[in-house]
Sequence to fold (326 residues):
Amino acid sequence: MKDPRLLRVLAGVGLLAGCVWAYQSMYATPRDALLADAQSLRSSIASIERDLEGEAEVRKRQKALGERTLGARQDLVTNRFRIALARLAERAGLSEVVVETGDPKDTRNPVVDAKGIASALKRDLRASPGFGVMRGRVQGNGTYEQAVAAVAWAQSQPWIHRVEGLTIKPLDRERKRFQVTLDVGTIHAPAWAKDEGTDPALAELIPETDAAYRVMASRNPFVKPAPAGPAPVRVANPGKPGPANVAPVMPAYDDWKLTGVVVGRGGLEAMLHNTRSGERLTVTKGAQVLDAVLVDGGGDQAVFEIRGARFEVKNGETLASRRPLG
Fold:
């Protein structure tokens, strides 16, 4: 005869197993699936929101750049570009101004050449570059100061997106008249220029550009300064006869002329020109030319340290004309 208690235990175990199975199959498993779907949906929403934020930032930057263009229609942009370049040259004081412009040329997006980018995206970028660059040239005659001023005005205009070339050529033997040629570029992006806007007005000089221009214009590097006298010569061991009395070769201080001193975002910089070789050199604080280390400066002068002593050099003077500081 079977034990009724054992039967009740077995029945209870079977009932419990059935409940567990029912819980897993009818509640827990569907719940876990729903939770996984919800998490996946939240991740997708977050990804879409990030993409939308990035797109909004791109559109904001496109709008800002569009406001710095000269319009959408090519004929209107060409006319405005030519007029604005002529006004720029006249503002700088140049005469006999000549302006040339060309048609816009599409700019190749660097993403097209990048690795790991979907071929469909590259194909779309090739088909629609997005913007082009219209290049122009303005040429005029004036003093050295006016030639440098033209460069400063060009660098300060928001519609000139790049200064691509500069040539300053003397027109007379006295180096008082010069011909300056500027090659510049402006972006032509019809999709970003929402309307045709108005004719561009000349922006005022950027303060940093104005300061650099005044330093450069203070000395004409094409005119050789008056001789400042012979460079000092040291004689080694004057009391001993023989080869030791031969004067050592001194650094060619007379060849290096200071042409400008700038204190900008990058710190102190001194610009020098080698009057013998034509080489131009920009020295930052702590760097050196020959054995002269740039340690201080501002305005129209620089301070160099040579063998532990400090010397002052003004714009237009050579290192041989240096003056000791106390």
